[in-house]
Amino acid sequence: MKIHEGVDNFPKLNFPVVTSGTFDGVHIGHQKILEKLREIVRQNKGESVLLTFWPHPRMVLHSHKYQIKLLSTFEEKAELLEARGVDHLIKIPFTPEFSQLTSEEFVRNILVNSIGTKKLVIGYDHRFGKNREGGFEYLSQHAAQLGFEVEEIPQQDIEDVAVSSSRIRNALNEGNVKIANKYLDRAYSIKGTIIKGAQLGRSIGFPTANIKLDNDYKLIPADGAYAVHVQFEQHLYRGMLNIGNRPTVNGSERTIEVNIFNFDKDIYKKEIKVSFVDQIRKEIKFPNVEALRKQLMKDRELANDILNG
User: Fold this and answer.
1) Is the pLDDT assigned to residue 62 strictly greater than 90?
2) In sequence order, which ranges of 1-66 are alpha helices (DSSP H)?
3) What is the pTM of this model?
4) CATH of region 11-162
């Protein structure tokens, strides 16, 4: 897959099959669009083009209201899209100025003049242009004069629940990683660097590695204990991870700490990847450290049961 910074120097392709969107998380709804993209590419011996925006539009347009947390970094998204067979990924810098493009300007300047789109595939209720004014109806009405065909993917439901990045974020914010993983079609994961911690866990037989995320916009699931898989230097380990403020020891700062089973390597300042399998329990304040230690023993047993399943 080739990654292009903007459209200014985008190469001329024989039959570009295009889709656009934020594709945060590349969940199963997104994957349906990508399947259709690949199908049309095969039928026409063309090349797939995915147009995405970075930063995420909500990070630019609504930063004064709230800070959106994302399911994937740009690098993670690119890796997921490449695995799904995308040939060209165009990274459009999303700025306040870009957000003022009308739907007509977006279509003519980018889809037609810069990319030379032959067929456009969009998801259910996809909107674009200033104030999200453009959509399937506009594209269908103007397709002939624009010189490309348009295909809309119907709304994707799982057990009568519409799949969206927002629903996955909500599930993770509630600690429901099993639902999030179902919608993502993979385990939700975070990456980060190991930093020095208070080392309380080591003193009670549960040494933990404190993880500092590489950015501040990646979504961290709800506080609690989780069964996880840990990837370090191409090796996969089992573990349990705690997110929270460590109320038993009067902690104040929210931390992410992982206890890796059967592991004794020095990973300080090294990067690891943690994949969430299921939540074991919510964060609890125990009466003392000994009560915490006994609960951690139960947590480890339950985590192994979950990871065995």
Assistant:
1) no
2) 28-44, 57-61
3) 0.91
4) 3.40.50.620
